[in-house]
Amino acid sequence: xxxxxxxxxxxxxxxxxxxxxKVFSTKKVEQTECPLTTFDLPFLTFFYNSKIxxxxxxxxxxxxxxxxxxxxxxxxxxxxxxxxxGRDEEGxxxxxxxxxxxxxVEVIEAIAENVSVExxxxxxxxxxxKVLVPYAGVLNLQGFHKPLLAVQFTRLKDGLALxxxxxxxxxxxxxxxxxMGSWAEICRGAxxxxxxxxxxxxxxxxxxxxxxxxDALIAxxxxxxxxxxxxxxERVFRFSGAALESMKSAANAGRNPPEFSTFQSLGAxxxxxxxxxxLLAPEDPSVFTIFADCRRRVSPPMPESYFGNLIQAVxxxxxxGGLLSQPPEFGAGLLKAAIGAHDxxxxxxxxxxxxxxxxxxxxxxxxxxxxxxxxxxxxxxxDVDFGFGRPEQVRTGSSNKFDGMVFLxxxxxxxxxxxxxxxxASYAMDRLEKDPEFLID
Length: 441
Fold this sequence. Notes:
By secondary structure, this protein is an alpha+beta fold. It contains twelve helices and 17 strands.
């Protein structure tokens, strides 16, 4: 990707950056810093998380004006996003500069006048996404110098692409969509947001872990890590409510009442299909990873409105031959057992182990033959209406994707439908797209 005179060239398409500015909270914020916990710190060497929302509409200036005004208003409640990463006097990492000395949120205005919303809504994920979201390929560690939230408003032929890059050290998926929904509320004219964020991170984990991070990694001119080569194909598979009921019936195999949830049944369905598509040998391990929300699992439980990271990766696995030779209930049972075992004691043990021997991972350290599920159909992503209608599509940007990464979103048309966004090696994606056992109507 090259930038010349404000124009970003990518695979024959052109996105012209028109302006860059900063947005600050329009109201006084008393807090000037925010601690980071053991739930936050492991994400330092991941990339910024990216989300893209596509909206129909032609009055770009009016839409962007409303979005910027609402952003300034909502940031008083989500003030950590206006700061930067920093260290205290003992070298412990924190978020700082998020009060009256706030560093601000970066806002980029751009134009892609020959690109339509429909073109970007295709089930085969567009390569354009990497230039519709800022900070592609930027590590969270760069939050010492870069804003913790950057937003790009791109004018399309018939609408608007809203690309958001969030520093993952600051927040997880639940907090991301809490912020997005609250921003939309303000833009629709609400005087106040309906659910205030809960900011007491010390209640989640009152620890002070000092990390020895080389200065070269956090320098403003630190080189970006190399991108995956070649880029992985990405595809959205859409499953109706009826298809999900069919998966659930197959996993429960006549059990009454059902033993396995819709998520466990869908997870097993995807896990088995990707394992088939990879042509693994019977003895090869196949691993399923869930990034589980721990808000209700920790003791005492934390409110859903907790703003920060409260997720942990939960793992299970089986030999490929065993997973595929058994009925769907086998895989669903493994998922249920892994999720059920991840209680407050297991969470605490994982945290204490990391604190004793901190280790920073890259997103690509997931291992071989992994299916890893991020996001959740519970996130009401299609309710993010800023006053000009629901999004036409919601997608994940190109960051933090590896072979086997899966993002789940509710289907736009409701009815219990789910969109499954998968990144997969080319040979396996080709097989998955033709697998009648996977493509349930």
